[in-house]
Amino acid sequence: MTERAESTGAVRTVDAVVVGAGFAGLYMAHRLRNVMGMSVAGFEAAPTVGGTWYWNCYPGARCDSDGYIYCYSFDEQLLQEWTWSGKYPMQAEILSYLEHVADRFDLKRSFEFETFVHSAVYDDETERWTVKASNGETIDAKYFISAIGTLTLARYVPNIPGLDEFGGEWVHTANWPQCGMPLGGRKVGVIGTGSTGVQLISTIAKDVGHLTVFQRRPQFSIPARHETMDPTVMADIKANYPTIWETCRASAGGFPFEHNGRRAMDDTELERRATYDALWQEGGMKFALASYRDLTYNREANSTVTAYVRERTEERIPDPNLRKSLIPDDHVFMARRVIIDTNYFEQYQRDNVDLVDLRTTPIARIVPQGIELSDGRLVELDLLVFATGFDAMTGPFLNIDIRGREDISLKAQWGDGPHAYLGIQTVGFPNMFMITGPTSTMGNLPLSIETHVEWISGCIEFMEAHGVRTVEATATAQKEWSEHVTETMAKSLLSSTNSWYNGSNIPGKPKSNLFYLGHFGRYRELCFEIAHDGYRGFAFTPNPVRSAPALIEEAMAADDEPGMLI
Ligand code: NA7
């Protein structure tokens, strides 16, 4: 292990390259550099830290999880010194938090900003990675760690004829100018009504001259019921953080709440109604995640919640024609990522807001003045916003030319969809680690990220302590994990409709299992149990002579930073 980076001519030699300075990259750099004393070369395409929370600065961008658990849990002091202003923090507040973390742990000096990693190539002879970046640097590293996130830099803009000729401005929500955009008095069109479109539309409707929403498929959305943080509640949270995190780490989704343990049909209709009413009143993700255990995989159970959400949504949309357009009939509640909103459906009652239902009237083409519809109607626009989502999970990886053993390209390897073991490593790419890579859990992402960062740093520490040169997932372990991920996805209603969860939102992208839909707490336990069991399913070169579990115990005993390996 080198204490500091060595410069050898044009090539910088480090222990690890970390790509991305969002939640994942910052914590990874902290573990490797500040805790383990390794040299790190970090790269980030944005001018500062934040990752997805830097790029997604469109009006209304807000987190759908409670701020007090959408943060790092690894440092008690950090938890105590940061106070969230409300239930669901806005993008700017999360960005300030990440800036604070970067400053507090002095992390910015480990990153080159406004620098894109073009390629990462593994050399079979030297067993090291050569990484080339847009600033002209070449890095030689033992470990190549992707902290590139699920959505960042993989914006999807559909190929609609005529965009080049559009006379107004157009923008993708994840590329919104940091300095903002003038909206007052303008004729604005928004294509896309996923989580992003819903947040944007709800926020800008009151500011623009006229807003036209182009909706392909409607989605279910439930009220967020955002509120500002009561100081006594925040104090209580701070006093109880250890218990809160314990609950989150063991829970199904990484949240401080769990389903109620019952199946929907165990209760009478009246009891179910009372359960749904109480959670609807609370609002947010809790409505979806804290009621019955079987809503996402049992159709009969799900039909009760879908009917409830439909009914409550109808109350929000007085116009029966709009109801037909705005309430989904092609998928059930929770078959797509749940959207939470603040007065979204209510915006359609404004005189300056129109909905174009693309199922009945598709877009014909974009013309210099705006959008021409299939019925010949012209919607005049000054600004066209694409809230059309992302080439999620694999897109950010395939932006980089990553080549493993025998020059295999990741793009070729993942031609039919991504393959990975635990979402951490993929066969053929030794010493390449993915933080929340394909087939890892979703849920409360900062906690999933912490789980992976701690697992990866534990594995690297183990390797360094015992002279191990390379680690690589075995083909058998990867195959078994993929089968388990596929089985879990097949049971879930999430596989029943097209969405970015299974890659089907991108034309030509193979439909595949991008995420593991199993229980987060059990997945987390499994990851650390595998480490304890001598990194079952991972092959080391050279293989440690003594049994791996014994070595882990040794490393743990020598480690004064508890929680690194387990
Ligand atoms: P999503 O959830 O993928 O939503 C994209 C939206 O764009 C969705 O309404 C799509 O319609 C629509 N879309 C995509 N392509 C087209 C075309 N060609 N024409 C019209 N409409 C189109 O992305 P978001 O950014 O909202 O959210 C992604 C995640 O970010 C979110 O889940 C959070 O985790 C944060 P569709 O419904 O597919 O018919």
Q: Summarize the biggest pleated sheet.
A: 9 strands, mixed
The DSSP helix count reads: 17
Overall residue-averaged pLDDT value: 94
Poorly predicted spans: 1-8, 554-566
Which structural class matches the secondary elements? alpha/beta
Number of strands: 23
Shape: globular
Distance between the ends: 22 Å
What is the helical fraction, as a range of percent? 25-40%
Radius of gyration computed on alpha carbons = 24 Å
Beta content: 15-25%
Which ligands are bound? ligand NA7
Features:
binds ligand NA7, disordered C terminus, globular, disordered N terminus, alpha/beta, 5-stranded parallel sheet
Any overview of this molecule?
The chain is α/β, with parallel strands linked by helices and about 575 residues long. Helix content is about 30%, strand content about 20%. Strands 1, 2, 3, 4, 5, 6, 7, 18 and 19 form a 9-stranded mixed β-sheet that branches. A 5-stranded parallel β-sheet has the order 8-17-9-10-13, with helices on one face. Helix 1 packs parallel to helix 14 (about 445-465) and helix 14 (about 445-465) packs parallel to helix 16. The chain is globular and about 70 Å long. The two termini are about 20 Å apart. Residues about 1-10 and about 555-565 have low confidence and may be disordered.
